[in-house]
Amino acid sequence: MRILALSPGARSLKRDLAPVVVCGVLAGCAVVVQAALLSRAVDAAFLGKATLASLTPVLLALAAIAALRAGLLWLQEVLAQDFSGRVRLDVRDRLVRRLLALGPRFASGERTGELANTLAGGVETPLAAAPRSG
Question: pTM of whole model > 0.85?
């Protein structure tokens, strides 16, 4: 999150992160609901000697929650990838602006290939190493 704190557009980026977090929280809630439904189904099947017909609503609800959770996790991943791309673009933009503001004298002793590699790889490497959920 430190990258977000350094960014002039940090408020906008943090607002864009909210849907990613919401999807993660909802997927976590879906896990709890799945566990409760599975517990109810196992209890009814083994201890309550329920028939398949009486378990059908619980099993259908379990399947629906599993599908919902899968959809939420997929959406979270898509939103996180989009957000990550915007953060990278913002960081690169700030680096280039800073380099241009420093002027040609600052970079006179540097090789252009090294500068380009630092701008590309220097932004990708820390973000690629950031922990992912899932």
Answer: no
